[in-house]
Structure formats: C-alpha cells, structure tokens
Write a structure and sequence with these properties.
Elements (H helix, E strand, L loop, with lengths): L9 H16 L6 H8 L3 H7 L3 H23 L8 H12 L2 H12 L1 H10 L8 H17 L9 H16 L9 H17 L8
Amino acid sequence: MPTGVHIRDARQQLFDAAERVLLRAGANGLTSRAVTDEAGCAKGVLHRHFSDFDAFLVGLVLDRAAQLDRESEALAGSVGTGTVADNLTSALTTLFGPVPVAIIPLITFRDELRARLRQALPGGGIAILAQATTAISACLAAERDLGRIAADADIDSLTLSLVGGGHLLFVDRVAGPPSTEAVNKLVTAVIADAVRRRPAGSNP
C-alpha cells in the first residue's frame, strides 16, 4: 500500500496486526516491518502515528491493558455466584488469555518499553500483570465481604499466589493453555484454607 494512502483507524489496525504477529511469532518476531507487513501498509504509516517503535509498543500495551480493565469489570459480576474456586478459575483464564500472555515477555525483555510504561501510568512497568493483580485482588476482597472466604484472609498473599501461579501455568505457548481442571486445581489449593475458615453457613 502506498505511503500516502490513508488508512481508516490506522492505529487500531496496526495494534491488531501487532497482536497477530505476537501470537504467531512471539515477542522476538515483533518488529515494525512485521507489523506493517501484517497490516498491509507502508512502514511510514506507523511512523506517522508514533514517534518510534517503542512509542508504538507503549500504545499497544496500554490499549490491551485497557481491554483487560474492561474485562475485569465484567468478571466482578460473577462474585457471589457459583463457587469461589470456579469464579477465580474463570478470572485467571480470562486475564491470562493468549494476547496478555504474549505481551508479558515483550515488556519483560524491552527495558526502554518498561521505562516508558512507568512514565505513562503508575505500575505501568508491569502492565498486564498489574491489571491481573488488581482484578484478582478485587474479586477476593468482594468474596470476603460476602463471607465466602475467611474475614481474616490475607488478600495480598492470596492474590500474589494466584497471579504468580496462574502466569506460570499459562506462559508455555508451545504446549498450549492449561486445562480448566489444572487451573481449578491451583486455585483450590491456594484458597483452601481461606475457604475452610469461612463463617459457618456460608456458601463456598
């Protein structure tokens, strides 16, 4: 596509193209040329919208982090229904979907990207993981408020265990995502004590 041709919603098209490249080739395969080739446009299109490739990556990460924030709001609607373990299993599966899992190593291995993300928003240096942490913490706190886990449960420690363990389960792209049963097994083990000590008469 000639450089001068206008692309409708160019930023979003470039983000979507980058997402496809990430899923197919991983963080190492994500280059400006790969993105513009995938989007079917000239390389100059990217640089008309972003000062450099790291600026583009900041935009990509923040866009996907905002999507996770919106998904987290939807997850909050399941609090108090079903079982705590099933709700957290569903939350981890959503939060560690293929795109978030592909973005995490991109942030981890690009120092300049992390630095710019830290400037862009609080906690931005660990974007995606930060969104997952906030979402899981909110779910646990809400379940505690409903009496479905112990009132003295350590929400911060439970959150770190679930997010850290969940990330390890989902990070192996070659083997594919873990089964629902594997995720539920992790969740059940992490929250077992907090659920066991819930007030008498409460639903698990």
